[in-house]
Amino acid sequence: MKQLIIVRHAKSSWANIGMSDFERPLNERGNRDAPEMANRLINRNVVVDAFVSSTANRALTTATYFAKTFGKNQTDIISVPELYHASTATFYQVIKKLNNTFQTVALFSHNPGITDFVNELTETNIDNMPTCGIFAVKIDTNNWMEFIHAAKTFWFVDYPKL
User: How far is CA 112 from the centre of its chain?
Assistant: First the structure.
C-alpha cells in the first residue's frame, strides 16, 4: 500500500507585478498556512518519506515548509521542473518514476492541473484545489510504476480554511 499526499502551493504574492510567474514568492498568508498544513499532517500521524516539488518558487517554498516540519532539509526535496503547470499525464509520468522505497510521498504543484489530476483519482471530486490544500489517496500497490492502473481510495482532504 502506497500513499500520495497532493499539495497545491500556498498563497503567492502579486506585490511585484513585473516578476515572472515562476519566481513569485509566497505572501504573508502563504508563509503562515504552509507550516500550519504540514502540522496538520503530523497531527494525523502521517509519515512522509519523500517530498517532490515543482521548481517554481512558491511550490518549492511550500515544500520546504513541509519538509522542515518533518525534520528534513530543502536539499531532501526532489525537484521536478515538469510539475510546473503539469498536465494530468505529467503527474502520472512523475509518479511512476518514484522510488519504491517511498511509501508516502507529498507532491507539490499548481492549478489548474492539480485539480484536474485529483479529480481523476477517485470518486471524490473537488471544484477547485485551494491554495495549500491537501488531497490524499491510498494506492493498492507496492510499485509506483503501477500507480495509473492501481486501485485508489480517497483518504482525506484538508485546506487552511477548513
Answer: 13
Domain ranges, residue 119: 2-158
How many distinct structural domains can be found in the chain? Answer: 1
Pairwise CA distance, residues 34 & 17, whole Å: 23
- Return phi, psi of residue 123, to 5°: -75, -15
Beta strand pairing status for 134-139 and 104-109?
unpaired
Residue 21 belongs to domain with CATH number: 3.40.50.1240
Q: How many CA atoms lie within 13 A of 38 on its CB side?
A: 25
Would you say the C-alpha torsion 112, 56, 93, 34 has a positive or negative sign?
Answer: negative
pLDDT in tens, 28-85: 999 999 999 999 999 999 999 999 999 999 999 999 999 999 999 989 999 999 999 9
- Cis omega (within 30 of 0) for bond into 35: no
Q: Which of 95, 123, 106, 104 is nearest to 1 (CA)?
A: 104
pTM of the predicted protein model = 0.97
Please state, in angstroms and rounded to a whole number, the distance separating the CA atoms of residues 162 and 158: 6
Contacts of 34 (CB under 8 A, 6+ apart): 10, 26, 61, 62, 65, 66, 132
